[in-house]
Design brief:
about 575 residues; four-stranded antiparallel β-sheet; about 35% strand; globular
Length: about 575
């Protein structure tokens, strides 16, 4: 294992000068993450509630016009751009780049405290379709946890970057999949899901002991129980899919992990309306395109809801957003689905409501808001799909980027994507053994919605009912995460490279700044030494953003695909 790290005297002195040296000894544990500290950003969505919200208000609607770049960090070798969400604990910012490069930086100055570059099999990485981006890390018990594309979970010492343990969880040479999403730390366990809805793997989600690195449990999202096995006709569970590629969340009251899973493989099926008995994978294909509740200690399935039975459209549920709310005495979970629908559950995953974020949806006529049942499915047989184009596009009416809930306004700020695609379904031979290429089963091309143009929009909505208060439109769909703050602000880094700040109550734009390259990663806020910062990753290129140059032209034709930066703002 090749390890590159340093802890400089100057960096240590700088942190101490900010008054954080004693705070560095504070433990990042489940209780602290659950509280979602005022000055920190301790887990992917800020806390287990998944608000993606900062209670800081030093930067606010009255002074946001004075924001300027405080510092930047260039991670290097940012193949396919940057997609990660930074974390902050006690004045130190941690983030990952492509190839799982991991950095600890002084949150006030950007000075590097340590860096870690895992040694990877370059030939293996080159064979992997989704390589080599990484969407983030987790922290807890004095360690930083990061997954790799070659199937390892690695724990690094938070202070030094020294490897504390590493555990091989997936035979990536065989399966050609690994880990692209961030892990989740909770209650002494690190949970991580593999990538992939188009491979013949079975979408494992792992629970690993945070202290020792020993694997505690593994849950298979494809036919992981006797009940689920019956929903894959003709042993089609071997075709696989179902990767839980984005981090879910933890419910401490029930000791439960909530996680979303990806689509089954082959992605597009040719069964038509007879999908229960015909095609490549007859049946509902549990537990793909589902939300699942697992016991954190054992990995045992507690409950689930399959959002799209027999998903034939790649509108999976792996969006890692589980908004934990209370209303009218009910404890609810809000989970956006890639289809453009947003599901509202009780904590046992019983459906309480379903609402549309996206206008252009025609893969179903509707979803029953009381039961979650699909109404008027649009299933395909082999050949060219007749007009109209399928909506939304494979990129989703909702992508993996996170929305934000502001408890002060009571509004949920979420990006919707209005685009469609032409489709020709191919009757391929089902792939039941691991191989390098994706098992998609169709040719497809992005297309505008019927009678309209492609666009994206930021909506401010009631998270339970879906009632819309305001909307801001973008000429191309933004694919980065959203941040709201107690300063009555909503930040949106867009695809063209501009970061915008809006009034959280009205949607009025108050400030913007061009970062020079497109955004497809996370944005957070934190405080060091009494000063608030806004941090985001910038850098374009990937499975979704690769389509922008051909589709939209303009700035995307010259936008680089293999660079990126962490950009941090503060008040002048």
């Amino acid at each position: 294992m090749k390890r590159q790290w340093r802890f400089s005297f100057l960096a240590a002195a700088a942190v101490a000068a900010l008054g954080t040296s004693s705070a560095l000894a504070q433990t990042v544990d489940t209780a602290r993450i659950e509280a979602g500290g005022q000055n920190d950003w301790l887990t992917y969505h800020g806390s287990y509630k998944s608000y993606h919200y900062s209670p800081l208000a030093q930067i606010n609607a009255s002074n946001v016009g004075n924001l300027s770049v405080a510092w930047m960090h260039i991670p290097g070798r940012s193949t396919r751009g940057l997609q990660s969400t930074p974390l902050v604990a006690d004045g130190v910012l941690y983030y990952t780049g492509s190839y799982s490069r991991t950095f600890a930086l002084n949150g006030a100055t950007g000075e590097v405290i340590w860096s870690y570059f895992p040694e990877l099999d370059e030939a293996l990485i080159a064979r992997q379709t989704h390589s080599p981006y990484n969407r983030g890390a987790a922290i807890g018990e004095g360690k930083v946890y990061v997954g790799t594309m070659d199937g390892r979970l690695i724990a690094l010492d938070m202070k030094s970057g020294k490897v504390m343990w590493e555990t091989k969880l997936i035979d990536s040479q065989k399966l050609t999949v690994g880990f692209t999403g961030a892990p989740l730390y909770a209650k002494g366990t690190v949970v991580i899901g593999s990538q992939g809805g188009e491979w013949p793997g079975r979408g494992p989600i792992f629970g690993v002991d945070a202290t020792t690195g020993k694997k505690k449990w593994e849950f298979l999202t494809v036919a992981g129980t006797d009940e689920a096995m019956k929903t894959w006709g003709n042993d089609s569970w071997r075709t696989g899919g179902g990767g839980g590629w984005m981090p879910g969340t933890f419910d401490s009251e029930t000791n439960t992990i909530l996680w979303g899973t990806a689509n089954p493989a082959p992605l597009y099926d040719w069964s038509g309306a007879d999908y229960k008995t015909q095609g490549a994978r007859p049946g509902d294909n549990l537990y793909t395109t589902s939300v699942i509740a697992l016991d954190i200690e054992t990995g045992k399935l507690k409950s689930y809801h399959q959002e799209l039975p027999h998903d034939a459209w790649d509108f999976d549920s792996a969006v890692g957003e589980f908004l934990m709310l209370e209303r009218d005495g009910q404890k609810l979970v809000v989970h956006p689905n890639k289809s453009g629908f947003v599901f509202v559950y009780d904590r046992g995953l019983a459906v309480k409501n379903v609402w549309r974020l996206v206008e252009n949806i025609n893969f179903v006529k509707d979803i029953n808001p009381k039961t979650g049942e699909l109404i008027g499915r649009r299933d395909f047989t082999a050949g060219k799909v007749e007009s109209p184009p399928l909506c939304p596009y494979i990129g989703g009416g909702i992508s993996w980027n996170g929305g934000s809930y502001n408890p002060k306004t009571g509004l949920y700020y979420k990006i919707g994507q209005e685009w469609c695609m032409t489709l020709e379904v191919q009757k391929t031979t089902p792939v039941v053994a691991p191989q390098v290429q994706l098992n998609i089963g169709a040719d497809f091309k992005i297309a505008p919605p019927p009678g309209g143009e492609i666009y994206g929009h930021l909506d401010a909505r009631d998270p339970i009912t879906g009632a819309k208060k305001w909307e801001v439109r973008f000429p191309e769909p933004p694919i980065a995460s959203v941040l709201s703050t107690a300063g009555n602000l909503v930040f949106v880094p867009d695809a063209r490279g501009v970061v915008h700040a809006y009034d959280a109550e009205s949607g009025t734009e108050l400030w913007n700044h061009n970062n020079g390259t497109g955004h497809q990663g996370g944005i957070i806020s934190y405080s060091v030494g009494g000063k608030q910062y806004i941090a985001m990753t910038a850098g374009f290129g990937g499975m979704l953003s690769d389509d922008y140059a051909a589709t939209f032209g303009g700035v995307y034709k010259s936008m680089p695909r293999d660079d990126g930066a962490l950009i941090v703002y503060s008040l002048k």
